[in-house]
Amino acid sequence: MDDELFLHKELEGLRQEHKALDARLSDVPENGHINFEAARLKKEKLRLKDRIAKIEQTLYPDIIA
Predict the structure, then answer these.
(1) 30-46 as b/e, with b when 16 or more CB fall inside 10 Å?
(2) Domain residues of the chain, as ranges?
(3) Sequence-separated (6 or more) residues with CB below 8 Å from residue 17
(4) Three-class SS of residue 63?
(5) Residue 27 confidence (pLDDT)
(6) Could you read off the pLDDT of 5-58 as tens digits, one per residue?
(7) Is 15 exposed, middle or buried (CB count within 10 Å of its CB: 0-12, 13-18, 19+)?
(8) Which of 2, 34, 48, 49 could form a disulfide with 18 if both were Cys (CB 3.0 to 4.6 A apart)?
(9) Rounded CA gap, 43 and 35, in Å?
(10) Alpha carbons 10 and 55: distance in angstroms, whole number
């Protein structure tokens, strides 16, 4: 039970962090050049999305009845 509570709290934190990265990414100016800051933020956002998906799969597994 404690593990499930921990996962729910971690999931909420990751979602907030993902949302904050999204906001920061929208503030990065878009220009025609390679923007390393935008690339770094996008990579971090994808990493968070993967962690969120993994935790969600643990908490809410697909059970075929």
Answers:
(1) eeeeeeeeeeebeeebe
(2) 1-59
(3) 48
(4) coil
(5) 83
(6) 999 999 999 999 999 999 998 888 776 666 888 889 999 999 999 999 999 999
(7) middle
(8) 48
(9) 12
(10) 8
Residue in the block written with tokens 């220009």? 31
pTM of the model as a whole: 0.82
Higher per-residue confidence, 4 vs 29: 4
Q: Is there a contact between 59 and 7 (Cβ–Cβ < 8 Å)? A: yes
Q: Are 17 and 47 in contact (CB under 8 A)?
A: no
- The widest CA-to-CA distance across the chain, in whole angstroms, is 51
To the nearest 10 degrees (0 to 180), the angle between helices 2-27 and 36-59 is 160
